[in-house]
């Protein structure tokens, strides 16, 4: 009688594949949790900034699957440093390249952008 240990009758190759996939999923969850915690412990900052560029990234949408779009905007602050932050579709649509205003963020989390005249 053959025994494959913990995985019962599953061949070792499939067991290894399962462990690798499960490891990636766990790593991703831990990484997102750490970023969420870091953002929560970061100060909320409001700084003058300029919208440099905008981009979107669409995933899925082939066949019967639904599409999901992520929206990103790159801001440049007075020191010349640039940061790319993820925004909602509504926030993304309200911004135009070269807009000037006050950017409020916490870590890597976008909070708001108030355009100045």
UniProtKB/TrEMBL annotation:
Residues 45-65 are annotated as: Disordered. Keywords: Membrane, Transmembrane, Transmembrane helix. It comes from the Bacteria. The chain crosses the membrane at residues 6-30. InterPro entries: DUF2500. It holds the Pfam family DUF2500. This is DUF2500 domain-containing protein.
């Amino acid at each position: 009688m053959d025994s494959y240990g913990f995985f019962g009758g599953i061949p070792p190759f499939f067991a290894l594949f399962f462990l690798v996939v499960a490891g990636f999923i766990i790593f991703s969850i831990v990484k997102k949790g750490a970023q969420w915690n870091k953002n929560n412990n970061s100060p909320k900052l409001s700084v003058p900034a300029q919208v440099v560029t905008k981009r979107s990234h669409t995933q899925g949408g082939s066949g019967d699957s639904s599409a999901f779009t992520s929206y990103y905007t790159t801001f440049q602050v007075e020191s010349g440093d640039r940061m790319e932050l993820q925004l909602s579709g509504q926030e993304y649509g309200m911004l135009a390249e070269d807009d000037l205003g006050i950017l409020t963020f916490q870590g890597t989390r976008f909070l708001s952008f108030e355009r100045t005249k």
